[in-house]
């Protein structure tokens, strides 16, 4: 596939790396020549320096025969205009735009048939808010991913001594919980992946990925670590787009406090949020946190635009007694350094956004993609089409499907019914199949499995 990416920042660069490794024809456009040279030194891609919304620059990048334009610069206006130019002058078939400002997102009539010709809108702030909200809904989870409109979820959790399954073989889970069906898709032990078998023993400290119907998530989590009490009190540091969205999504179910430095922004937040207590001040100020009883806070969320400020505020809050700390980290190099210590969960907006973008790039009928383990692993939801003659999966039992090494099928959703994967299960047309890939370099092989042969037509 020939893809033009506008923007060589964290999202654009990470996306180019993901797609270039999958044998796509990638061209990246950016004003920053230094950043483009860095990418070209590492990746087999073309680069064009210039403003991505200019027709001459798009033509130079090969827009005349491009299959897709992905506009992820830091400017909403540049992204939107680039989509318009690509449509009007080059008839680019697929156009994806990152739009951050709620002033645009709130007006749906700006996009589509009578507005900017954007086929897919990506809002990082919205995606990150959803991600954090799910972590708060499931105390103790490291990652919670949805498939099939929330019917089934993939959860990452740290196995902890005291969980009934820790120290036992996985087969013990079925004996201990006969009425709950789940599947452990993968285990990471000291950063090494393990394909789970029935005799695999769960050890303290393992990062376990399991799939289950949404109604059974808490029960399975309780097998892997002592179940935490539900959260009640949430403290948000940073009143930007993410902080405001997060407070709005949580304030009807939790006691929410939001701390913001800018006085004018505080006034605006207090006028737009109904139940959230808005405070003016700096989260690095120990006295403010103590005055607001940080020691009784269940979750401290640092979501400013400054990584260092988020890290320092989170460390301070944790040492002052906050029960759980979630920290937004834009620099991916920081994520591995800090997660799992005093900071419980490091959240990468880039990885959250890239998963959503990859959904629209994958071949075959792929409806959901989630990047895992800082992009090394991947979970996807693909729809099985065709029949036993035209499809490599339809009509076959799961143990008959030749999956790429390191790939497991976790669940099938059929007519809104969740079927956890077992060898005897047979794939039917239009099944939604949820797969976990330890090695995402195998994604092309997985895509081929779900592509329909010519005999189907």
Automatic annotation (TrEMBL):
Superkingdom per UniProt: Bacteria
Family matches, as SUPFAM superfamilies: NAD(P)-binding Rossmann-fold domains (SSF51735), TrkA C-terminal domain-like (SSF116726)
Organism: Marinobacter daqiaonensis
RCK N-terminal domain mapped to chain residues: 1-122, 231-347
Protein name according to UniProt: Trk system potassium uptake protein TrkA
Keyword Transferase among record annotations: no
Taxonomy of the source species: Bacteria, Pseudomonadati, Pseudomonadota, Gammaproteobacteria, Pseudomonadales
GO terms assigned for molecular function: potassium ion transmembrane transporter activity
RCK C-terminal domain mapped to chain residues: 142-226, 367-452
Matching InterPro entries: K_uptake_TrkA, NAD(P)-bd_dom_sf, RCK_C, RCK_C_sf, RCK_N, Trk_Ktr_HKT_K-transport
Stored PANTHER family: POTASSIUM CHANNEL PROTEIN 2-RELATED-RELATED (PTHR43833), TRK SYSTEM POTASSIUM UPTAKE PROTEIN TRKA (PTHR43833:SF5)
Record keywords: Ion transport, NAD, Potassium, Potassium transport, Repeat, Transport
């Amino acid at each position: 596939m020939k893809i033009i990416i506008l923007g060589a920042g964290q999202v654009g660069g990470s996306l180019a790396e993901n797609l270039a490794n999958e044998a796509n024809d990638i061209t990246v456009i950016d004003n920053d020549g230094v950043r483009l040279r860095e990418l070209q030194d590492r990746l087999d891609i073309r680069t064009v320096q210039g403003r991505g919304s200019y027709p001459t620059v798009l033509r130079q990048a090969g827009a005349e025969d491009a299959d897709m334009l992905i506009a992820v610069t830091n400017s909403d206006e540049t992204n939107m205009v680039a989509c318009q130019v690509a449509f009007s002058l080059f008839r680019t078939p697929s156009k994806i735009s990152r739009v951050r400002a709620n002033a645009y997102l709130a007006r749906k009539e700006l996009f589509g048939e009578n507005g900017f010709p954007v086929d897919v809108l990506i809002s990082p702030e919205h995606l990150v808010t959803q991600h954090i909200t799910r972590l708060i809904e499931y105390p103790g989870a490291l990652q919670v991913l949805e498939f099939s409109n929330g019917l089934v979820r993939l959860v990452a959790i740290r196995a902890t001594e005291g969980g009934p399954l820790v120290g036992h073989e996985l087969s013990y889970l079925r004996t201990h919980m006969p009425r709950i069906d789940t599947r452990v898709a993968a285990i990471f032990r000291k950063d090494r992946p393990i394909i789970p078998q029935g005799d695999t023993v769960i050890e303290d400290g393992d990062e376990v990925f399991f799939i289950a119907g949404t109604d059974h998530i808490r029960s399975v989590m309780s097998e892997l670590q002592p179940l935490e009490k539900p959260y009640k009190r949430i403290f948000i540091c940073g009143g930007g787009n993410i902080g405001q969205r997060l407070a709005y999504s949580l304030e009807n179910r939790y006691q929410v406090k939001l701390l913001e430095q800018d006085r004018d922004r505080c006034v605006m937040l207090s006028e737009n949020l109904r139940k959230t207590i808005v405070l003016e001040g700096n989260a690095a100020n120990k006295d403010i946190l103590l005055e607001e009883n940080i020691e009784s806070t269940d979750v401290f969320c640092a979501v400013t635009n400054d990584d260092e400020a988020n890290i320092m505020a989170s460390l301070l809050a944790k040492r002052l007694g906050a029960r759980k700390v979630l920290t937004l980290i834009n620099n991916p190099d920081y994520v591995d350094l800090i997660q799992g210590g005093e900071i419980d969960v490091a959240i990468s907006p880039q990885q959250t956004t890239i998963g959503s973008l990859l959904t629209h790039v994958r071949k075959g009928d792929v409806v959901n993609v989630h990047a895992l383990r800082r992009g090394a692993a991947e979970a996807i939801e693909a729809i099985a089409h065709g029949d036993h003659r035209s499809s490599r999966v339809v009509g076959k039992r799961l143990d008959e499907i030749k999956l790429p090494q390191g790939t497991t099928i976790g669940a099938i959703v059929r007519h809104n019914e969740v079927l956890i994967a077992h060898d005897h299960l047979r794939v039917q047309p239009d099944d939604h199949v949820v797969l976990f890939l330890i090695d995402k370099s195998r994604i092309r092989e997985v895509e081929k499995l779900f592509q329909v042969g010519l005999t189907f037509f």
